[in-house]
## 1
Amino acid sequence: MSAAGEFDLIRRYFHRPQLQSATPMALGPGDDCALLDVPSGQQLAISADTLVAGVHFLPEMPAAHIAQRCLCANLSDLAAMGAKPAWFTLCLTLPANDETFLQGFSDGLAQVAQRYGISLAGGDTTRGPLSISIQVIGWVPQGHALQRNGAQIGDDIYVSGYLGDAAGGLACLQENVTDTGYLAQRFYAPTPRLELGQWLQDKATAAIDISDGLLQDVGHILQQSRLGASLDVTQLPISQTLATQVPLAEQERLALAGGEDFELCFTMPQSWRAQVQDYSKQQQLPLTRIGQVEALSGLRLWRDGQAEVLPENLGWQHF
Amino acid sequence: MSAAGEFDLIRRYFHRPQLQSATPMALGPGDDCALLDVPSGQQLAISADTLVAGVHFLPEMPAAHIAQRCLCANLSDLAAMGAKPAWFTLCLTLPANDETFLQGFSDGLAQVAQRYGISLAGGDTTRGPLSISIQVIGWVPQGHALQRNGAQIGDDIYVSGYLGDAAGGLACLQENVTDTGYLAQRFYAPTPRLELGQWLQDKATAAIDISDGLLQDVGHILQQSRLGASLDVTQLPISQTLATQVPLAEQERLALAGGEDFELCFTMPQSWRAQVQDYSKQQQLPLTRIGQVEALSGLRLWRDGQAEVLPENLGWQHF
């Protein structure tokens, strides 16, 4: 490609109005930096993630689905802090200038950007093995962010939505990479629980999004809060689709360790139970109480009143 | 590696106090997001870049040098906006958990972070072909950022430092990847011209950092300012080292098109000439007047009063 190739490509696929959402920019992409105004009283929340072809997604997936998956996964980190999305940057590494891929990728990004109100502020395209790094920037009223370290003894432990669907969806996609069924969609277009995260401000004592698997992610809350917990495996929320497609033992394994569901797991004083139920009904979003925070360190899984030893290495392995 | 591998690795190599600099964080790495306070009256400046092994650096280079190169290149984008560095995020993709590499990489990052006052706020480590995406966040007093689009007819065009050294250094490193001579250093540890960028606020009419090569980068200023320019190739600042190691024609080619020097190129009304000279002396930083902005579109290269046609494709090719 000509020297102008990168700039033409960036302009065509990434300087589209569809990638600009509600939050304005003082200066958008196209200069050395973007310039952004943060409203006063707000704290920035930032997070960055890389998704590598063959590790985090199937390289043969439609480009729009790859884009959706990447941006939604990053938005989920904002949700877990109770933050409101504002801007993101995209570092896209591509083996070649594949216009079909770029068009699909740009369309997928645009769809998510419009839906969740986030604008592309800048980034970089480079040649190399397919991988995508996205950094999201949001904000949250100063001092009101949800953190991982505030869980208290006796708090209820909740999860949003259903667990294990994304892992089930990945299995579907491995059979048919263009599958657009319910489970496949839960893998490539997970729902960042942004409204829930904002609602949880000043209510939840700790929160995290489920990327590595419920057990690992609850473990992060407990470790940072220096406490333990019991979970009731019979309470794990399993979708009807997963329940009909997968044997019971496998449902449980996917729900506990599948990861990538990008649901929120949060701890809350028991006094909030009624409000949680109301909110869940209003929003038609399952919020399931799956356990309790305890003084005794470690994570215990219970079934029919029997504690089980926690099996090791049930989570997603990055390395 | 065990499931805990990524978290141990992140803690050991990236949660080091050496990677925390002057600018405090409300909440540093280790949660879903970092939380950051932006001083009032300041605008955020953000930029992101990916460096891929074999494309942007030699994979066999010492890890500390790879880290320096990546972070300095990103800081240079802040310099080109006149912004002050605050935080960065790091997405590191590695083929394997190589502790020697990680230690060296972390040390290289820490050295640059301390020197230029930037703190690591978060990021991600993943398995895959070696590549590094860094996003830098800085700030600049609201409305005072340097942009590319403000050049005026008659403005002088300046560059800082010397041109072509980084390209010369890359050639040295291709012969000996552990070379630490002057030219090699200009490749792996370029100097982001942060103080110069801040000094240029309210003086320069346009600025850019030289990453793609002088001709391409001047071209960006001219394109965004909708003007043309003449450059005097006999005025290109060439270091003594490059001048003694490389034939004249090659010096010129490297200075015009080598790229990756991360010097600043800026335009300024002629009335600032005396102040530029004074600043250059005080800082012992060459600031060389190499041309002038003109109404006639296009970029003309002059030598001894003769205009030459601008050869095509003299810049760095991303794709």
Note: The radius of gyration of chain B is 20 Å.
## 2
Amino acid sequence: MTQTHAAPSKTDNATDRVYNFSAGPGVLPESVLEQIQADCWNIDGSGIGVLEHSHRGKVVDRIFAEAEADCRKVGNIGDDYAVLFLTGGATTQCYQVPANLLPDGARADYLQTGKWAEDSVENARLYGDINLAFDGQASVYDHLPMSDAEINHSDDAVYLQYTSNNTIYGTEFSFVPKPKNPDAFVVCDASSNIYSKPFDVSPFGVVYAGAQKNLGPAGTTVVIIRKDLLERKPRTLPEMLDYSVHAAKGSRYNTPPVFPIYVVGLVFKWIMSEGGLGVMAERNERKAKHIYDVLDASSFFKPHARKDCRSMMNVTFRCPTPELDAKFLEEAGARGMKTLKGHRSTGGMRASIYNAFPEAGCKALADFMKDFESKNG
Amino acid sequence: MTQTHAAPSKTDNATDRVYNFSAGPGVLPESVLEQIQADCWNIDGSGIGVLEHSHRGKVVDRIFAEAEADCRKVGNIGDDYAVLFLTGGATTQCYQVPANLLPDGARADYLQTGKWAEDSVENARLYGDINLAFDGQASVYDHLPMSDAEINHSDDAVYLQYTSNNTIYGTEFSFVPKPKNPDAFVVCDASSNIYSKPFDVSPFGVVYAGAQKNLGPAGTTVVIIRKDLLERKPRTLPEMLDYSVHAAKGSRYNTPPVFPIYVVGLVFKWIMSEGGLGVMAERNERKAKHIYDVLDASSFFKPHARKDCRSMMNVTFRCPTPELDAKFLEEAGARGMKTLKGHRSTGGMRASIYNAFPEAGCKALADFMKDFESKNG
């Protein structure tokens, strides 16, 4: 009594795709997209598509178990950490972190290095006493502290929170800040550079990342949290907001966003099949170098980020005038290089070149930049 | 400079699919799945797949505008209501509703008609004084109030909250409760029967539904809220939890779960292409009747829900013994009728037959039930 369907019109994967420099949601590996196309119709030979499976059934059991195990394998995350797949984006972590970990009125140090850090500070102030241990706002966040000497650490901070890569400004930390209080832990919003290079989780109490930049589509947030912190519980929260509830239930306390988590799982497998984080890092450095080499040699383009803290994930630059920026974007678009427009707070261009972005696209952009400068410089 | 790809291995939609009676995430229309397969590679001829588009770009502008407009068209929702696409499932609404709408210590009436209602009550008690105006727990939620006379309304309730269809037990309200307090509004968790039949929004202050039963995949929650309620703001909340913030930002305050919202938009278009909610209701009544007719004529199967409040969406029943239940499930599975196992609190079977579930599957189940009874009765 199984239904059999005649083959409907097939998906035509020969359709052109462009170089997608989107800052997020961003490009995904094409092999992942092809797997999704197949699994949306029928996954694991179950006769049911991945979107239509109960979150309590065996197929989703497998998907979730593999996504967690592969997250641990890729990042070398041990059993002393819980790996959670939550909802509400990194924006929800802006309040979920202090709600779960900062007692009323207690101190936490925040490094204000961009828009996401600002949001974290604003939310954390609903719960505790927030010390801006670094503030880059005056220079439109064009640089970061280069060492702990540039951070105004508190003696009594419960934790220190920072954003490891600042998507809008194109800055990336080159070190993990070390709190002055030996009992303090570090919280990292790694949304835009998680798993872009080898990763040591041990300095961190919490690492979180919205999936839609380096890990998958929008709709889930990976939260890696040291298990002893799950017991802090400084206040009564709705169970949905309590990390320990999600940890106890394997991220299935309620109906989770199955599909985004499934795609993140496919991306972990893709990273491993490519050779892991060492290969990602080499490739990402090579990719970024194509573009930074042009910027370094140019008297025409102006980078936004200071050279010593620039990002391997988001390259930000401007032409001499907004009119030339517009011309650059239009001509790049005509050459199949899309979504290069910078954030309104920096203007100009932003090339987001996450793990799944192909090196050929970086070369194409670098070549076009040189050509554009020679014609307009 | 556009990349051109040779056609990779195509998705083979001829693969068998089964009758999927899952209670949620549940079955989706096959035409929607085929659209998803195409759009994951390249949507709107953009050269970028739906998962990879910026939530601030033109393609997502179109998707969100159409999803909202089509939600309004299908449900006849006027401009006096906001239509939001949020995250965290209906479970998040259990606390987001009272956090946004119930002042400290104020009264709300809750109808405890199942597991979801229990969760709502538990969360609301963190905020206000909750009156259980109906409680069906003693009879394992096998029935509902049939009129306001069976509801212990408070004089001073700010709102009355109920669950219009109880997935686990297979019960469905046949009327909208009317609060005694003329200033009170009604809040409805319609997760498992939204848009299964014609809908009049006017009695409601808030209607919400996790998408994964009648509207799409897991990962977004539709919240329809009367606009004047957005201004209540009885307490300071993180912006992510504030309905008025999401309303002001068109559900794009932060990076939203683009893909689940996109699929919900496709499902709205599918409902319209099928003829709208009137057609859905006729079809759903006919579908359920195939199965209920067998139950009504049977001395073998025992329905869980009382006859006068049974659901058009979830049909719950048991065999005379748990051993026969297991045999039924095994034999049904072998005939391509899957995910029929009932919830642990009711045992037996549950046939979830949401909008996208085909009538042929209901007939097939009814035929199998008669056959099974004749052989085992």
Note: The longest strand of chain B covers residues 129-135.
